[in-house]
Design brief:
893 residues, alpha+beta, Jelly Rolls, Immunoglobulin-like, 6-stranded mixed β-sheet, 24 helices, 41 strands, signal, xylan 1,4-beta-xylosidase activity
Length: 893
């Protein structure tokens, strides 16, 4: 038991590098206390930190923390992501995007998903250490910069897809269960450490995030922006937190006094704070409040930002020498970080070290992904009862999202092993002979899209669609192909992974076949590749058409300079498509040689094609069918984090319009003119609001970015095998003209709580294939004292002919409150046809409280009304009950 600590202690004593960190006598007298498992993590961390040099301390406070061999510290990458599955670290189970998880309104499900993700994170970490015992790099650690619990206050925000929606109560309760699942129940070791983000007032605009300031009122801060964070810290006990890019009341978030007076003093937070990436640099380059890196770093550390995602904390030794902070200030932060590493079992091992790589995408996790995707489905409209389909219909599948990997994955994603696409799932469900397919339109006019399968064949006379793919386990196409198959679409995610039996960055693929343009004319053809970073080699791909080399990275870069493909936001020449002209509609030979040489996030054979023939093909498919199922919406290539996207309706990752893009609208209008039934399936993160769709579609289903099981979940829902029970976690407004300016963070006229006008669909809305009835609720008391809780019990009956899920929602109207009745409880239940169940929801003092103009949270005296039903009181016929509260009490922040 003592051999390893004594040997390491001796190494510390003998190392000449240790002289400035700790004398041999000090180490001997302390008996290498940082290795003593009988001490608290805090005591061990203090001993460990005091043995480091000033420069070592600064290095350990950056996300790529180097090894310190004499102390037994392995290198460790603190930057890891698990928003809706283990992200950016290779193969993983991909669950629905976070906004889709919120749409399940199933808090226990979040706990199970968090636990499954943490299991895969440990499996990946353990496998990485087996490959390289010296430590782990970015994306292979076991602390995670998730969940994103910012309030989706404005539907234009591109990162709203990463959140749990617009309501603080729903967000807080979904987050607490997810965090618990990640961190686990072991008394000594965290399975993982969750990091709710971005503290605390942050939700766009993306193009301004590095330099804008939010002057938030005390009321809005306490009423809207902090409750979910408080729940994450006080209730779920998250051991980490991330601060935001923007400033709050004039102070950059990562240098804000809120980190001390609210987070640590009021909420009792003991863990570590990490900065959003390069936000310390923003403090002097964006906000321009500090003269240089040393001054900004010093201010951030003293405010409570312990770990810098980025290199700016390299300036900390200089800051100490200039007297801008003390080494003791650094020690305080570093002790918190080292205590975290100890609690994760990263210093001397832990109970999760034996989780095998086989846990990744296990059978149980795949089933969980399907369950989550099915529960996320929100039936927005079904006025004529067209859904569920019978399964005997001939269907036309159209739309740019029918076969698009990116709109399954969402952003911050892992690489799904065997993703289920809507097109392929519907062929399996209905029979391939009953499904006609046409892409119909790009997401947006002029946007490059993967070449649809309908224009690719392995040979000109083949009945199959797609290209022949030959996969080699080397980078030079040597020997026989290890895999040979027909790939319908050339669009893959091999980020940090590889085809089965091959090594990442150690394989090559040759695709051959023919491409048949739908009409003669000018096209742009390209291969999706990441523009290389400074010092990074170019991607390695070549595309020949009719024997002529038409696409290479060099040609794509040259085209990017000419096209200014991503506008002024381009910092370097992008991998743009090149011009190509087809003079006929005959099959043309195509060959692609791709070598996996750099870590591209995605790879695909893309084009920008004339849209008229795409629409014509969709119309022809509709004419040959009974029902049209249109997969439309957005993609994470349009909405997301600080993106170089400036199409009409989009700006830098955010949106300037809620409308369905014109190219897709044109397609739907043409198809509807055939007179066939039209089912619209939205695949989006943020809301799409289109009056034409609402007036003309026979049914509308919101499917989100549904993850690896998305296609199967959608097919099950369309056929009634899955009875949709999801509910909207945000309001779908009619138009951005109904909203305040995006930059305005005041909550007046925002979200269901304060928006007074008509909307397209209300927060909490969602239909079912069955019906539910509610008996009059019973309360545990009709009169309570301020600070006490009250229980509301209601019996829910399935009054329809199908089994289904109901989301019981409790809203409360408070005396004198400026808000509409607000969500204060929810529970998702499953009821067989004709069955009933009693549901009890607890209203505690915080759920009954309200905030005054000074930001004080109180429970006020007066009459309260509780509403229960499957949606908001104004959206449904809710049952209600009243009670009174006597007295007044102030609650802690």
């Amino acid at each position: 038991m003592t051999t390893a600590p004594l040997a390491l202690c001796l190494a510390v004593m003998l190392s000449p590098m240790a002289a400035t960190a700790a004398t041999p006598d000090a180490c001997a007298s302390a008996s290498c206390a940082f290795l003593d498992k009988n001490l608290t993590p805090e005591a061990r961390a203090r001993d460990l930190v005091k043995r480091m040099t000033l420069e070592e301390k600064a290095a350990q406070m950056q996300d790529n923390a180097p090894a310190i061999p004499r102390l037994g510290l392995k290198r460790y990458g603190w930057w890891n992501e698990v928003l809706h599955g283990l992200a950016r670290a290779g193969s993983a189970t991909v669950y629905p995007q976070a906004i889709g998880l919120a749409a399940t309104w199933d808090a226990p499900l979040m706990d199970r998903i968090g636990d499954a993700i943490a299991t895969e994170g440990r499996a990946n970490h353990n496998a990485a250490l087996k490959r390289d015992p010296s430590g782990t790099d970015r994306y292979y650690g076991v602390n995670y910069w998730s969940p994103n619990i910012n309030i989706f206050r404005d539907p234009r925000w591109g990162r709203g897809q990463e959140t749990y929606g617009e309501d603080p109560y729903l967000t807080g309760h979904m987050a607490t269960r997810f965090i618990h699942g990640i961190q686990g129940d072991d008394p000594l070791y965290y399975k993982g450490i969750a990091t709710p983000k971005h503290f605390v007032v942050h939700s766009g605009p993306e193009p301004l995030r590095h330099g804008f300031n939010v002057d938030v009122s005390p009321f809005d801060l306490e009423d809207t922006y902090t409750p979910a964070f408080r729940a994450a810290i006080v209730d779920a006990k998250a051991d980490s937190l991330m601060c935001a890019y923007n400033a709050i009341d004039g102070a950059p978030a990562c240098g804000s006094p809120l980190l001390q007076n609210l987070l640590r003093d009021d909420w009792g937070f003991k863990g570590f704070v990490v900065t959003d990436c390069d936000s310390i640099d923003d403090m002097f380059t964006g906000h321009k409040l500090y003269p240089d890196a040393a001054a900004a770093s010093a201010a951030a550390v003293k405010a409570g930002s312990d770990l810098d995602c980025g290199p700016t904390y390299q300036a900390l030794p200089d800051a100490v020498k200039r007297g801008l902070l003390t080494e003791a200030d650094m020690d305080r932060s570093l002790e918190r970080l080292m205590a975290g590493r100890i609690r994760m079992g990263l210093i001397d091992g832990g109970v999760y070290d034996q989780i095998p790589a086989s846990a990744i995408n296990s059978t149980a996790h795949r089933a969980l992904a399907l369950e989550a995707a099915e529960k996320a489905m929100v039936l927005l409209s079904n006025p004529k009862g067209v859904l569920p389909l019978k399964g005997s219909e001939r269907i036309a599948v159209i739309g740019p999202n029918a076969d698009l990997l990116q709109s399954l994955e969402g952003n911050y994603t892992g690489a799904p092993v065997d993703p289920s696409f809507p097109l392929r799932a519907l062929r399996q469900a209905f029979g391939a002979d009953k499904v006609a397919y046409a892409a119909g339109a790009p997401l947006i006019d002029g946007m490059r899209m993967p070449v649809p399968e309908t224009f690719l064949k392995p040979t000109a006379d083949s009945s199959a669609h797609g290209l022949k793919g030959e996969y080699f386990d080397n980078t030079s196409f040597d020997g026989a192909a290890k895999i040979s198959r027909i790939d319908p679409v050339i669009n893959f995610d091999f980020y940090r992974t590889a085809p089965e039996g091959m090594r990442p960055l150690g394989f090559s693929i040759r695709w051959t076949g023919v491409i048949t343009p739908p009409v003669a004319g000018d096209y742009k053809l390209g291969f999706r590749m990441s523009a290389p970073r400074q010092g990074q080699p170019l991607p390695n791909v070549k595309v020949w058409v009719d024997g002529k080399l038409v696409v290479t990275p060099e040609l794509s870069q040259a085209a990017g300079k000419e096209q200014a493909f991503c506008g002024d936001a381009c910092a370097k020449p992008p991998m743009a498509p090149v011009d190509i002209t087809f003079t006929d509609t005959k099959p043309h030979d195509i060959r692609i040689d791709y070598v996996r040489a750099v870590e591209d996030r995605a790879l695909s054979l893309d084009w920008i094609a004339p849209t008229a023939p795409l629409v014509t093909a969709a119309v022809e498919a509709a004419k040959a069918s009974d029902v049209v199922v249109a997969f439309v919406g957005l993609s994470p290539d349009l909405e997301g984090e600080e993106m170089a996207v400036n199409y009409p309706g989009f700006s830098g990752g955010d949106r300037t319009s809620l409308a369905l893009p014109a190219a897709q609208k044109t397609m739907l209008e043409a198809v509807k003119a055939t007179g066939k039934k039209l089912v619209v399936v939205y695949m989006t993160g943020g809301p799409v609001s289109d009056p034409w769709v609402e007036q003309n579609a026979d049914a509308v289903l919101q499917a989100w970015y549904p993850g690896q099981a998305g296609g199967e979940a959608i097919a099950h829902t369309l056929l009634g095998k899955n009875n949709p029970g999801g509910r909207l976690p945000y309001t779908i407004h009619r138009d951005v003209a109904d909203l305040p300016p995006f930059e305005d963070y005041a909550m007046s006229h925002r979200t269901y709580r304060y928006f007074k006008g008509p909307v397209m669909y209300a927060f909490g809305h969602g239909l079912s294939y069955t019906t539910f009835g509610y008996d009059r609720p019973a309360l545990s008391g009709n009169a309570i004292k301020a600070g006490d809780s009250v229980k509301a019990t209601v019996t829910v009956r399935n009054t329809g002919q199908r089994d289904g899920d109901e989301v019981v929602q409790l809203y409360v109207a408070k005396p004198g409150d400026t808000a509409r009745p607000v969500l204060a409880g929810f529970s998702r239940i499953h009821l067989k046809a004709g069955a009933s169940q009693s549901v009890t929801l607890d209203l505690d003092a915080r759920a009954l409280s309200q905030v005054d103009s000074a930001g004080a949270r109180k429970v006020m005296p007066g009459r309260y009304v509780v509403y229960l039903g499957g949606g908001q009181p104004d959206d449904i016929k809710a049952v209600s009950a009243e009670f009174s509260i006597d007295g007044e009490t102030k609650l802690p922040r």
